[in-house]
Specification:
There is one protein chain. By secondary structure, this protein is of the alpha+beta class. It has helices at 3-20, 60-68; strands at residues 24-27, 37-40, 45-52, 78-85, 88-96. It is 28% helix and 34% strand. The longest helix has 18 residues, at 3-20. The chain is globular. It starts with a helix and ends with a strand.
């Protein structure tokens, strides 16, 4: 399985997770921007999904980009960075704007 397909599978998995909780989810297909999913509900969520097979990988660059983002969206929006490592989900970053 290619690295791209590996990552896309986890984006789809994350999308299904939010949909199963009753949220409306839009996947930003083909986007190489900061966020992969936009989740609608009482508060909007902007989610960046990362996946790796490596034991250690630094997401410092991605965290800095996500941290800077915020002036363009409404208050109450939640920014998230979600990591999938060997099938396990871990929220690395979550902040309410």
């Amino acid at each position: 399985m290619s690295n791209k397909r590996y990552g896309l599978n986890y984006e789809r998995k994350e999308k299904l997770l939010w949909q199963s909780h009753g949220y409306t989810v839009m996947r930003c297909r083909g986007s190489f921007g900061r966020f992969d999913l936009i989740v609608g509900g009482a508060n909007w969520r902007l989610i960046s999904v990362k996946s790796t097979k490596q034991i250690y990988y630094s997401y410092k660059k991605e965290l800095e980009e996500i941290e800077k983002f915020g002036a363009e969206v409404s208050k109450g929006t939640i920014k998230m960075l979600v990591l999938y490592h060997k099938g396990k989900r871990k929220v690395l970053y979550q902040k309410v704007i």
